[in-house]
Amino acid sequence: MTTSTVQKMRPWAATPKDRFITGLSVFISAALSVLIVAATPMKGKLAYFGLFFLAWFIVDSIFVARRGGAKGVRDGLAAKVTLLGGIIVCMVVFSILWATISRGLKGLNLEFFTSNMRNASLFDPIGKGGILHAILGTLMLITIAVVISVPMGILTALYLTEIKGKAAPLIQFLVQAMSGVPSVVAGLFIYAAIILNTPLRSSAFLGGLALTILMVPTVTRTAQEVLNLVPRDLREAGLAMGATQWKTVALVVVPAARSGLITATILGVARIAGETAPLLFTVGVFDSYNFNPFKGDQGTIPTVVWRGLLGGTPESIQRAWSAILVLLIVVLIMFVAARTLGSRSSKN
Amino acid sequence: MSIDAPVKVTPPARKITTKPRVSDQIFRAIVTTFSFSALLILSLIALFLLSKGFTTLKEQGFGFITNFEWSVFVDENGVEKATFGLQAMLLGTLVISIIALVIAVPLSVLTALFLTFYAPDRVKRILVTIIDLMAAFPSILYGLWGFFVLMPMAEYWAKLIHKWLGWIYIFDVPDPIYTRSPFIAGLVLSVMIIPIITSVSREVFSQTPLDRIQAAYALGATKWGMIRAVVLPFGAGGVVGGSMLGLGRAFGETVAVFSVLNIVFRTNFQILFTQGGNVASMIIQKWGEAGPSEVSALMAAGLVLFILTLLVNFLANYVVTKTVKSGR
Amino acid sequence: MSQVNYTNQNGKLMSDQPKNTTPSSLSDVASKRAESKVAGTQPLGTGLEARGVHAWFDKHHALEDVSLDFSAGTVTALIGPSGCGKSTFIRTLNRMHEFIPHTSMAGQVLLDGKDIYESGIDVTKIRLQIGMVFQKPNPFPSMTIGENVLSGLKLAQLKVDNQEDLLEECLTRAGLWTEVKDRLGAHAGGLSGGQQQRLCIARALAVKPKVLLMDEPCSALDPGSTLRIEETISQLSKSMTIVIVTHNMQQAARVSDYTAFFLSDGGPGQMIEVGPTNEIFSRPRDERTENYVTGRFG
Description:
The complex is a heterotrimer of chains A (about 350), B (about 325) and C (about 300). Chain A is built from 13 helices and no strands. The two termini of chain A are about 40 Å apart. Helix content of chain A is about 75%, strand content about 0%. Chain B has about 325 residues and is mainly alpha-helical. Chain B has two domains: about 20-85, no CATH class; about 85-325, MetI-like (MetI-like fold, Orthogonal Bundle). In chain B, helix 4 runs parallel beside helix 7, helix 4 (about 85-120) runs antiparallel to helix 9 and helix 9 (about 225-250) runs antiparallel to helix 12 (about 290-325). The longest helix of chain B has about 35 residues, at about 290-325. Chains A and B meet through helix 2, helix 4, helix 5, helix 6 and helix 7 of A and helix 1, helix 2, helix 4, helix 5 and helix 6 of B.
C-alpha cells in the first residue's frame, strides 16, 4: 500500500529538453533571418518575417526528423503553418488597433468631446471644433434602432424557440438571409420606400429604421441561442403549475435568459454602431446639434469619419482617426460587456 | 355451438385538443405576427427597389447586366440620353471577392485548425476573442486602415508580385500605378471575411466525431495525418459554406472598398492596376450627383446586388446546414 | 495487496481454455483457413507488460497501481462493473489515455521489454504496434471499404507492394472477406453494425500490430454479430496478443485465456485478481471476484 506516494506524470508533455530544442531552433532561425537579410539585397519587415519562418521550418524539421522521420517532419510543418495562420490574423488585428490608437490619440482633447463643428471646418487645425454633435447623433440613432429591433428580434426568437410554429423553418431561413442584406441596400430601401414616397426627408428616425434592418437578424440569432439554453424543465415546471404559456414565458423563460438577451442587444448595437453606408442615404450630414429625431439631417460619428477620410488634408484625416478611435472605444466597451454578461449567463 | 374468438378492438386514437386560453391566444398571435417581420422586410426591399428601378430596367433591358457603359448626357435638343450597364461593376465585384477568398480561405482554415487542434486553452481563448473582435470592427475602420496602413505595404507587395510574376497577364500592369487596385481591395475584404470563415470552420471542425479522431490516432496517425483523414473530409462542407457566407459579405461591402479602390467603368482583370469596380461602392460614388434617371438606375443596381447576396446566402446556409446534419 | 503479478510461462494452457464453447465445427473450419494464411507472418515478441500503472483525470484518481503481464499470443479479458477503470487501463496501454485533457499517469508499460512512455519515443510507432478496436464501430465514412482497411498504411505512410493481397488477408482474418469481396469500392457506411466492427478489426490488422486492444467491441452489436467477432478473436489469438475489455462474462469465458477482475470501491479502480480464465470463473481466490462472477453484484 504505497499508493499515496506515487508521482503523477505526464510522459506525453514536452520535457525541458524538448523545450530547449524548440527555443534553440527559434533562436537559430531568428539569427539566420537577420544574417540573410544583412547579406542579401532583400530588405523590409516582410523579408524578416518570411525568412524567419522559412528558417524555422527547416531548422526545426532537422531536429524533428531524428525522432519522427518524414512523417514527423510533415506533422511539425503542419503545426507551424497553422500557427502561422493564427499569427497573421493576430498581426492584422493588432495593426488595426495600434494604428487607430496611436493615430487617433493625437487628436483627442477636451474640445473634441465637448463642442460641435458649427464654427469649424474639417480643415481647421485640431483643437477647433469637436464631435459632440456626432456622438449625440449616433446615440440617438442607436436608441431608435434598439427600441424597434430588440422587441422585433426577441419576439421572432420566441416564435422560433417557444411557439415553434409551422413557419419556424421558413422564418429561420429568412432571418439568416436577412443577416446577409448589404448595408447599402438597407439605406437604398429606406430611401426608395420613404423619402421617394412620403414627405419625410432624411432624419435620425429614418437612419434608425435602416439600421434596424441590419440589427434584427443579429438580435434574433443571439436571442434564439440563449433562449434555447433555458432548460426545458423550467418551462415544464411553469406549465405544470397551471400557468399559461404567456405567463411561463414572461415570468420564467425571459427572466432566466435576461442577461443573455442583454448580450444579444449589445451585440446588435455593436453590429450597427459603425455602419456608414446606410446613413449617407437616410441621415445625411450635419455639423451641429439636432435634437429632433424626426426632422433634419443629423451628425453621426461614421459620417464624420467618412468626410474626414474624403477630405484628404492632414487635419481632416486626423479628425477621422480620432473619431474612429472614439467609435472603437464604444464598440470595445460593448464587446467586453457582452462577453462578461455572456460568460456569466452561461455559467448559471 | 362455437365460441367466437374474442375480437380485438383497437380504439381509434383520441385526438387531444386544447383550447388555449385567451391570454395565450393573444400572446401567440403577437409573437407570430412579429416573427413574420423578416419576411415582410425582405419582400418590401425587393418590391420598392424594383418599383423605383423599374424605369431603368425597362429602358436598358438585359443590357443593364451586360453593358459596361454608365453615362448620362443631354443632347442639343434637351433630351436626356442615358446608358446604364453594370457589367464592369459586376465583374469587378467578382474579381475583388475572388481575390478576397483566395487569401482569406487558407488563412481562415489554418487559423480554425490551429484553434481546434493545436492551441493551448489560454491561447485559444485569447485568439477566439480577437477573431470575434475582428468581426465587430466597423467597416469604415477597415476602410481607414486599408487606405493609410495597408495600402503603402500592399503597394510594395504588388510591385514585388509584378516584378516576379508580371509575365502572367493578371499580374501585368499597363502603367506602373499600384495603389487603389483590385488587389488591395481584395486584401481589405479578405481581412473582413476572415472572422466569418474562421468561426464557421471552427464550429464544424469542433464537431468532428471523437470516435473517428480516435480511430485515426489508434492507427498510428500523426495529428496532421488525422486532420487530413478525418477532419478535412468531415469539415469540407462547412468550409465551403463559411466561404460562401464570406463571399456574400464581400459582395455587399461598400465603404471599405470605396476607400481603397479606384472605381472605373471598364472591365479590368489586371488586378494590380489601379482600376476596378464594385456594385455597392459604385452606388455611393454616383449617389451624390445623381439625377432622377440615375437614381432609378442606382435602385436597379441595388436590386441586382440584393438578389445576388440573397442567392449566395441561401446557398451558403443550405450547404452549412446540410453538412452539419449529414455528419460526414 | 492490489499488486498481483501473474506471469504466464505455460503457453499450452491455451488449449484448456473454455473458449471452445463457441460452436466448434464452424470455428475449427475457420481457424484452419486462418492458420494457412497467417502462420508465422510476424514474430510475436515477448508481449506487453504493465507495471504499477496509475491514471488520473485531473484530480480524480481513476486507476491505482495495476500490474499485469500479457504474454505473447494470449487473450486476456478485463472484466468488472462500470467505472472500475478497465477502459481507462486499456487506453493507457497504447497511449490513447493522453488525448483527454488534464490527464496524467504513473508507472510503466513495456512492449517487448521497452517502456512505451519513455521520453523521446515516437508515439505513433507505438500505436502502430498496439492496435485498438473501439466500442462503437468507427469506420471512416468518407472512404470505401477497401480504403478503410488500408487507411492505416496511408496514415502511417507505410509502403506495401501488394495491396490487394494485404486487403484480402486482413479482411479474411477479420472474417469479412466473403461478405464484401465484391464491393470493396462501396462506402463503408452501407455495412451493418457487425460488419462495420469487423471492418474496423481488419483496419487495425492491416498495419500488422503485435498487440490488439479491444474496448468492449461487441457492446453495440446484436448477438449474431457478437458471435462472429468472437470467432474472429479466437482465430487472431494464434498470431497476436489480445486484450479485451468486456461487460459480458460469458464472452470473457468464451474467448479469453486469462481474466483480470477490476473493481472500484468508490475510490480509484484496482485490479483485484488475475488468473487463467477457468480458474477465475470456477474457483476465484478473492471473495469480491466470486461475488461478481456469480452475479451477486455488478
